[in-house]
Amino acid sequence: xxIAYLGLGIMGSGMVGNLLQAGHSVTVxxxxxxxxxxxxxxxxxxxxxxxxxxANAEIVMYCLSNEEAxxxxxxxxxxxxxxxxxxxxxxxxxxxxxxxxxxxxxxxxEKGIEFIDAPVFGSKNESAAGGLWIVVGGKKEVFxxxxxxxxxxxxxxxxxxxxxxxxxxxxxxxxxxxxQIEALGEAMILAKKAxxxxxDVLDVLHVTDFKSPIFDGMGSTLVKRDFSTSFALKxxxxxxxxxxxxxxxxxxxxxxxxxxRETVKAAVNHGWSEENASxxxxxxxx
Length: 286
Ligand code: NA7
Known about the structure:
- The chain has helices spanning 10-21, 37-41, 50-54, 67-75, 98-109, 124-128, 140-150, 165-193, 198-207, 213-224, 233-249, 255-272, 282-285; strands at 2-6, 25-29, 45-46, 59-62, 89-92, 114-117, 120-121, 132-137, 154-161.
- By secondary structure, the protein is an alpha/beta fold.
- The strands form 2 sheets. The protein has a 6-stranded parallel β-sheet with strand order 3-2-1-4-5-6, sandwiched between helices. A 3-stranded mixed β-sheet has the order 7-8-9.
- It binds ligand NA7.
């Protein structure tokens, strides 16, 4: 299929690699144009603007950082909406508030374009390996049409309901992630202060009935003191803020997540925003 892919950050790059591998004809666009070069060398075509990227595509996909990036790339000058035409399908894979997905769906519908929100769980390695866990909102029949395109990118794909429900599921999932990072951090610091060896602690956690890939992955970065980025701390704070907003919208209590958000915020304020999300734990060590 002819696919336009916009946003070649950590997540988008992995997905473009797998779309090319699957044999699709891919046109790429990224705000910082140089990030397209490795994919052009692998067969992608580079566009100069979002509007140009989507002009001849059947499917428009993007994974952008946040609401501001969506405002610029989808709704902005020379943005996606100024280049699309009837019959295309747009897929937003970014983590944004569900109301943003709903606004996108309305704007696309006015142009005769179908839309699904399809954010992803997993980070750098899962994206590169086609092992993401995708959660989808939108019309079921539109989801069924694009499912074969999402399959090479993912280990699982779950349909969650109408537009915005993929984005909602993503925030609910990241609410668990944020709580796990806080719990792991507090427990690991306690363990160390009480005289346990941190790697021994992780080894035990790994065999328990409360083991978690988050504990394995984030715990290991903590033990090795390697905070190179798979999922940036700044995006964890962005997600914590979106979760707080969703909780406010629904009058739902989030005392533990609100507390964990303060830890993440402190780490960002300390200057670790470009490091891996596990760097949040460093704020508990101060
Ligand atoms: P990255 O690696 O920080 O990539 C973010 C991408 O978003 C990257 O392509 C950026 O372009 C792009 N971006 C950021 N701001 C803008 C604006 N204003 N306009 C256009 N493009 C923009 O993040 P990840 O790939 O880890 O994460 C992407 C999403 O998935 C995010 O929602 C996560 O929470 C989950 P750049 O290269 O900086 O020019």
